[in-house]
Amino acid sequence: MTTLAIDIGGTKLATALIDNNLQVRERRELPTPVSKTPQALRAALQTLVAPLQGRANRVAIASTGIIREGALLALNPHNLGGLMHFPLTQTLEQITGLPTLAVNDAQAAAWAEYYALGGEYRDLVFITVSTGVGGGVVSGGKLLTGVGGLAGHLGHTLADPHGPVCGCGRVGCVEAIASGRGIAAAAEGALAGCDAKTIFSRAGQGDEQASRLIHRSARALARLVADVKATTDCQCVVIGGSVGLAEGYLALVEHYLAQEPWAYHVELLAAHCRHDAGLLGAALLVQGE
């Protein structure tokens, strides 16, 4: 059977056809609608999947936010504003006429990474650092989603009680500091208004402020990894996302994690599935249905 997999993020929408051998074919992308209204998202999704839906047997969605009973609830409205209760599975079933499953994107990516590692790590945590910071937990070989879909939202744990207000409403979340949006929001002077990609580029050119912002992000993430180790006693933590996979970032996280007491050290791995982790994880989960 062929799965039409869809990945909904704060910056982009992606889709691909994925067969039972997990081969990704005809990957397509569109920017996430700027207005981020239900009508705009529905229209964008319809445009995205139209060329592919006739060759699929089912739909699997990996989306940012909390997925509860097939609906999307945006924990951080800045990432998907206006979508506090979007009927995700219902919308895709109406568009495609196909049975549809939806799961949080980081939870899906955690499952893809667990599969890619061949079950070598029965206790694994995945953290994505991108527009936001998300996570997924595999414990004893099982994906944890939680009764309300909140499990793994690690980016909304505390990094700094005196830090910036997060889009979720809490103060000093990891996401508000370590994410691409958080990096950009802290930029001043010549870097004010630059996005995270530009700030990474400037850091590579020797810009001191850009370097400080990236170190600040990596330090916050290392502390999160230490907290995750203390909470789950996981065997490894896999880092993904556009920031997490940026050149030199993982090495910085390893540097700051090494400064934590030994009990909180854990193996860090770069995401094997790279930017397809959400698509592949959603396809794997729908195969197991």
Which regions have little confidence, pLDDT < 50, spanning 5+ residues? Answer: none
**Could you say which overall geometry the principal axes of the C-alpha atoms support?**
globular
Radius of gyration, Cα only, in angstroms?
A: 18 Å
Helix content: 25-40%
Major sheet: size, sense and barrel closure?
5 strands, mixed
Beta-strand portion reads 15-25%
Question: N-to-C SSE series?
Answer: EEEHEEEHEHEEEHHHHEHEH
How many helix segments? Answer: 9
Summarize model confidence as the mean pLDDT.
Answer: 93
- Kindly name the structural category: alpha/beta
Could you name the key traits of this structure?
289 residues; single chain; 34% helix; five-stranded mixed β-sheet
Give your account of this protein's structure:
Helices cover 34% and strands 22% of the residues. It contains 9 helices and 12 strands. It has a 5-stranded mixed sheet with strand order 3-2-1-4-7, with helices on both faces. It has a 5-stranded mixed sheet with strand order 10-9-8-11-12, sandwiched between helices. The mean pLDDT is 93.
Question: Would you spell out the secondary-structure blueprint of this structure?
Answer:
Blueprint: E1 3-8, E2 12-18, E3 24-31, H1 38-49, E4 58-63, E5 66-68, E6 71-73, H2 88-96, E7 100-104, H3 105-116, E8 124-129, E9 133-139, E10 142-144, H4 174-178, H5 180-185, H6 196-204, H7 208-232, E11 236-240, H8 249-257, E12 267-270, H9 277-287
Parallel strand pairs: 1-4, 4-7, 8-11, 11-12
Antiparallel strand pairs: 1-2, 2-3, 5-6, 8-9, 9-10
